[in-house]
Amino acid sequence: RAKASGTERICYYDETLDDAIRAQRRMIDEMRHAIANDEFELHYQAQVRLPDEEIDGYEALVRWRHPTRGLVAPNDFIPAAEQTGLIVRLGEWILRTACTEASRWANALPVAVNISPVQLADPHFVSKVKETLRTTGMDPSRLELEVTESCFIGDNPWANPALQELKSLGIAISMDDFGTGYSSLAMLNSFPFDKIKLDKSLIDQVHANPKAKSIVRAVMSLGDALDVPILAEGVEIVEQLDYLRAEGCSLVQGYYYGKPGRLTVADASAGEPSKSGLSGPARPAAAG
Ligand code: C2E
Ligand code: MG
Ligand code: MG
Ligand code: MG
């Protein structure tokens, strides 16, 4: 142990580490309880088709309605859930809930569910997805799974065959956060993705920065060449939308159209999906 050196400085680091481990342990206990106690909920964000601006589907994004801390964002608890493996159980809840809720939407639009690399490393993942489809009655062609390239790297030889099998059931597979990793192009070559989601970090500057413009343009032509639709993530302002539109981008998602929100049966069956319970401008006048 580092404490052997006996300096206060090193003891201080040790205590910090202990505190961090204790805090994570507490959080994991709380999350276990939260799963049993139904404290998680799914919010949905619209994915919008261009040029017509119709809603093409929704992405499910998990939140934790914590009894004292309020609504907790996924970045504050997914990493701990991944490190401890609890994401497998939480992920099962997420998939089951997304399928249950979406199968009640009268508009019958697709739902996209984020899948952690840890879930994909579970050898029972495919059979769990099949079982969820069966028990919820969800149409597999309305389900989309979003994976990141970290699902493929590392020692998970069955990620690719697992996704192939899910695809053969009619489930769509999207590459999420494209442009943030170091081997995305190799991933595109090794798996027939149904959609590529271009990361928000590349969209942020697309209206202002010539380099960002060039990169986005290149990705659009890559999508054309591979015949895979590109979805631009995190579109917030009309200037970004204008550029994406001009480059022939076919799908966009972001606060410009609406923040993730609860989507009730009534919302989704109202026959007017663009007003479906999402906060923010569902269809701003500026978009025309
Ligand atoms: P992601 O899958 O890339 O999801 C997009 C994130 O960007 C979401 O954050 C969404 O709310 C946010 N976003 C969308 N449009 C905009 C915009 O215009 N501006 C800004 N500033 N943000 C925007 P969120 O919900 O906090 O989720 C963060 C990440 O947590 C997700 O990134 C995903 O990696 C993970 N996550 C969320 N839900 C789940 C889940 O159910 N399962 C798993 N495994 N991971 C999840
Ligand atoms: Mg996603
Ligand atoms: Mg993303
Ligand atoms: Mg992500």
Low-confidence stretches: 1-6, 270-288
Q: How far is the first residue's CA from the last residue's CA?
A: 64 Å
Mean pLDDT: 88
Question: Which distinct ligands sit in these coordinates?
Answer: ligand C2E, magnesium ion
Query: Order of strands across the biggest sheet?
Result: 1-2-4-5-6-7-8-9
Question: How big is the Rg?
Answer: 21 Å
Strand fraction? 15-25%
Q: Tally of extended strands?
A: 9
Structural class: alpha/beta
Give the SSE order as H and E letters: HEEEHHEHHEHEHEHHEHEH
Assembly level? single chain
Query: Can you give the helix content as a percent range?
Result: 40-55%
Shape: globular
Biggest sheet layout = 8 strands, mixed, barrel
How many helical elements? 11
Question: What do you see in this structure?
Answer:
It comes from Acuticoccus sediminis. This is Bifunctional diguanylate cyclase/phosphodiesterase. The N and C termini lie far apart (64 Å). An eight-stranded mixed barrel has the order 1-2-4-5-6-7-8-9. It is α/β, with parallel strands linked by helices and 288 residues long. The N terminus and C terminus are likely disordered. Bound molecules: ligand C2E and magnesium ion (MG) (3 copies). The site of one magnesium ion has 4 residues, from loops. One magnesium ion binds next to loops.
Q: Outline of this structure?
A:
Helix content is 42%, strand content 17%. By secondary structure, the protein is α/β, with parallel strands linked by helices.
